[in-house]
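Run log, item B.
One chain of 305 residues. Sequence copied directly from the ordering sheet:
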Amino acid sequence: MTKTVQIKAGGGLAQNKSAPKVMPDPTNPRLTESVTGIDQTGAQVEIKVPVERALTLYLNAQEIVTMMTINDYPEYLALGYLLNQSMLKPDDVVTEVVYDDDLRVVVVYTERGTNFEEKLKKKTLTSGCAQGTAFGDLMEAVEGAVLPKAELRTSWLYRMTHAINTAPSLYLEAGAIHGCVLCKEGEPICYMEDVGRHNAVDKIAGWAWRHNVDVADKIMYTTGRLTSEMVIKTVRMGIPILVSRSGFTAWGVELARQVGLTLIGRTKGKRFIALSGQERIVFDQNLDFVAEESARHRRKGGDDD
């Protein structure tokens, strides 16, 4: 089956009130499959596991990358990847996105002519799992970046993390998955999951660009580590606050401090640690009224999530 999607130009700064809210759909049969095995006692068990699919991205006539993904939002993933690699400019006119489900190919067509042959020769492998790549001009995203003056109320932080941890998700259904969530104050508005956190954040970037969503007052949440790649992609999108339930890398912290990104990690129950951009935080939540994280919603693996 071939799916063709027509897309107009995006990247405007005005908030689009009609942007669809996106939440995980763990009941989608395409996203998981059941497998059998044995447990530590030798008893037979059956569990659900996420399904990985290869997706090859073309920009006009040029093959860019093949990604391993759950492939629930190929159009958003394609647009977000190209935006975060600076192959698609915020003011570009995208005339069409074509997705072929049989061939597992997505093609983004632009009015502007493109040729990234030289750029594709000098890509850098990042610490992201699966196909996490960024190109040689990584630092373009942070050099001279000016992030919006936003605030983060701790009441929003605790309400947001509780809503994310308790929402139905592919992680709770099958595990082995990362999540990234774009939030407005304490409310998740775009919750994407994938086998790699870079894919999940790229899908958010594509969703926001496609629907002209203003991200200046938004919060990015990720279940994965706060690496240089996550910081760079958040800064490239223009989001001023990045939060994770996991830990930090030294370069991620250094880059966040360089651009004034509010960087908060190890956010579990009542606890969190801010290592950059602390001036945005407003401590308005009485911790006596914050519940600890329940065992059911606690992700395994700690800082290695």
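Observations after the first pass:
- The helical segments are 74-84, 117-121, 154-166, 170-174, 197-210, 228-237, 250-259.
- The domain at 152-304 is CATH 3.40.140.10 (Cytidine Deaminase; domain 2).
Flagged for discussion on Thursday.
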